[in-house]
Amino acid sequence: MNTSSPSLVSPPLRVLIIGRGRMGQMVREQAERRGHTVVDLWGRKELQKGLWPEVDVAIDFTLPESALEVFAACRDQGVPLVSGTTGWESHRDMVEQQVREGGHRFLWSPNFSVGVHLFRRALAQVQKELQGHEFSVRVDEVHHTGKKDAPSGTAIALAQDLKNSGASHIEVGASRLPGVPGTHTVSWDSQVDRLVLEHSAKDRSGFGCGAVQAAEWLVAHDGPFNKILGMEDVWG
Q1: pLDDT by residue (tens digit) across 71-92?
Q2: For the chain, what is the mean pLDDT?
Q3: 143 classed as catalytic
Q4: Do 95 and 68 form a contact (C-beta atoms < 8 A)?
Q5: Is 148 a catalytic residue?
Q6: Catalytic, out of 36, 117, 143, 184
Q7: Active-site position among 36, 104, 117, 147
C-alpha cells in the first residue's frame, strides 16, 4: 500500500469551497498552504444564485439537507466535486446512478483523514482474525456538539466495514461533547477478553488536508467515472 501523499497537481487548482463553517475554513487554509487558489467560499445562497466562477474543482462541507443540491449543481456545471457532507446516504443509489449516466467526477468520503483510512483497514483485518472466536463488536463515536448527524457517517462506515468482514451484529453509540474533533472506538468483547482500537483526531487539519489531496487526485484522475469514488481510490 502506498501511504505517501498524492502528488500536487500542476498548475495549481482553482478551488471553490461550498460551506463556510469550520471545515470550510480549514479546507481553505490547507488548499492555500498547498499552493492552490481558493476562488470563493459559498453558502447556500450563492449556490442557489448559480453565478459560477471558473473553477477546477469544488469541495463541499455543508449540511445533510444541502448535499443533493450541491451534487446536482456541480453535475450540471460539469465541476468535479469532492464532498465530505454526511447524512444523505439513503439517496446513494440514486446519486450513483446519476454519476454513471453522466460520467461525473464525484468523490465522497465520510472522513478524509489518512489515519482513519488506515484505521478502517486495520479494523477489517482484526475482525477477520476474530471470526469464530465468539467476540461481540461495538462502535462508539464522540464528536463536537455542532455535528448534526448521529451516529456520524464515519461510524456508519466503520460498522459497514466490520459487517463486510464477517461481523453479524454491531452496536453503534454516539455522543456529542464540546470541542471534540472526532474520536472513534471499536471494541471486541468475549467472556474472557476485551480488545480495543481507537482513532482520535487532534484537530481538523487532517480532514482538511485530506480533502484537498482528494481534490488533487480527482482532477488528475483519468477515470472511468462510473461510480462514487472514495478514499480507497485515492490511497489504494
Answers
A1: 999 999 999 999 999 889 899 9
A2: 91
A3: yes
A4: yes
A5: no
A6: 143
A7: 147
